[in-house]
UniProtKB/TrEMBL annotation:
<dbReference type="InterPro" id="IPR012349">
    <property type="entry name" value="Split_barrel_FMN-bd"/>
</dbReference>
<feature type="domain" description="Flavin reductase like">
    <location>
        <begin position="18"/>
        <end position="173"/>
    </location>
</feature>
<protein>
    <submittedName>
        <fullName>Flavin reductase</fullName>
    </submittedName>
</protein>
<dbReference type="InterPro" id="IPR002563">
    <property type="entry name" value="Flavin_Rdtase-like_dom"/>
</dbReference>
<dbReference type="GO" id="GO:0016646">
    <property type="term" value="F:oxidoreductase activity, acting on the CH-NH group of donors, NAD or NADP as acceptor"/>
</dbReference>
<dbReference type="Pfam" id="PF01613">
    <property type="entry name" value="Flavin_Reduct"/>
</dbReference>
<dbReference type="GO" id="GO:0010181">
    <property type="term" value="F:FMN binding"/>
</dbReference>
Amino acid sequence: MFYRPEDGHGLPHNPFNAIVTPRPIGWISTRGADGHDNLAPYSFFNAVAYVPPQVMFASTSAKEDRGDTKDSVAQIRDTGVFCVNIVEYEMRDAMNATSAFFGKEVDEFAEAGLEKAECETISCSRVAAAPANLECKLTQIVQLPGKANFAVFGEVTGVHIRDNCLKDGIFDVLTFNPLSRMGYRDYTVVREKFSLKRPGE
């Protein structure tokens, strides 16, 4: 089949998210100017540069109590910082719990029963037990076409790695099995890996 998105796909559910998969999940923690902590998962997330290390995530909906966006972007606008918490398979239920539409005064860490730890380089909480955390300083927020679509870019200023995830100096994803987003309500988990050498290596 072929369809133009502006004309609709005619299927029971939008296939776009199922085509661009799997996608890593950025579990974004923020702290508002009023001191309230927030934690929410975003599957439009990735690393985008090595030097300096940079990441991005995109928010694509809004809440009535935040106007044109959601809590994460609103708080990042105010403070200029955020933290990316890496999601392991064992934290899938906690991650899912934080995806609910709570009021801006609600602390998702508490709702999901997650222990907090304070970041080192920014004023923000992080998921204490996560396999890794990336502390980030906002570089830019780009408004994308479409209502409430914002891409947030940040420079990584601090990196936490859980000790048991390091094996022989390598951050080994098989020690924690990263969770990834598929289409619809589907997820997948990394349980195996293989290596490929580039031509000429």
